[in-house]
Design goal:
55% helix
Length: 73
């Protein structure tokens, strides 16, 4: 359920840094990063260079992620 909430928050804030997503729920950044890795493997999100801060990575929800989120809700 926490991953669903993270994906929902992410869809509203995309593209977002992992640290920004960690503030959505009181979770360690490493926990969120692990979940993001799982969601990347599942094709729900992508990780790229942040558009306004080249030193950071940004996570964006894919079309598959949006479809899965719609199915869950």
């Amino acid at each position: 359920m926490a991953q669903v909430e993270l994906l929902q928050a992410h869809a509203e804030q995309a593209p977002a840094r992992v640290s920004d997503l960690a503030t959505v729920r009181p979770l360690a950044q490493s926990t969120v990063s692990g979940w993001i890795g799982q969601m990347i493997t599942a094709g729900l999100v992508t990780r790229e260079v942040h558009p306004t801060d080249r030193s950071a990575s940004a996570v964006a929800v894919t079309e598959m992620g949006r479809a899965q989120l719609a199915a869950w809700t």
